[in-house]
């Protein structure tokens, strides 16, 4: 590895630890992109709200024309990079995403990106707590520049920065996709026993309290989760990380 670049990586990580807002994170991402000899970067996290909906968090310097087109055409619904990142962990070069895997009737996102000067790039899938996932991508306006970047230990530098970036993002945006702190310990206990199929009466015996008290806690947790019934409460609590199905 280039020792001068390693010093730059350490500096970026130091800056991330001191970051206070998204502007600070953007500044660190800009430095990382420059370190990789890349013109563009994107850091995106999808936080699940329900089975059908996710909140999208993005930091990037992509061309504005591409962002407008991407949003207007809802390309996120069939973006192969997002699709790949949802179920993989290894980095991917955009050119490796085969056209044969895409729906022929939908927009070729990679080819369309080239028209907005995002001609080549590579991405790292990101998986965080609360079932959130996302991607960090770097791109260039020409293929040669990306190839040079890939042959200069770019993957290693990104992997050294990524943990600090995720920690800083979660610290700064701690309320995004996070409802864990909203439930009291008693509400979590009731939710756990509901997931085991216990009735209100059974839960009251397990927790040594009245059925009315159990019903009170269940009503409160449903209000906090924004759910209408017990089944939806279980589904949303697991999806958003309120309840861990595999406690340690």
TrEMBL record:
Residues 176-241 form the HTH luxR-type domain. InterPro entries: Sig_transdc_resp-reg_C-effctor (IPR016032), TF_LuxR_autoind-bd_dom (IPR005143), TF_LuxR_autoind-bd_dom_sf (IPR036693), Tscrpt_reg_LuxR_C (IPR000792), WH-like_DNA-bd_sf (IPR036388). SMART domains: HTH_LUXR (SM00421). Keywords: DNA-binding, Transcription, Transcription regulation. Pfam families: Autoind_bind (PF03472), GerE (PF00196). It comes from the Bacteria. GO terms for biological process: regulation of DNA-templated transcription. SUPFAM superfamilies: C-terminal effector domain of the bipartite response regulators, Pheromone-binding domain of LuxR-like quorum-sensing transcription factors. One of its GO terms (molecular function) is DNA binding. CDD domains: LuxR_C_like. PANTHER family: DNA-BINDING TRANSCRIPTIONAL ACTIVATOR DEVR_DOSR. This is LuxR family transcriptional regulator. It comes from Shewanella hanedai.
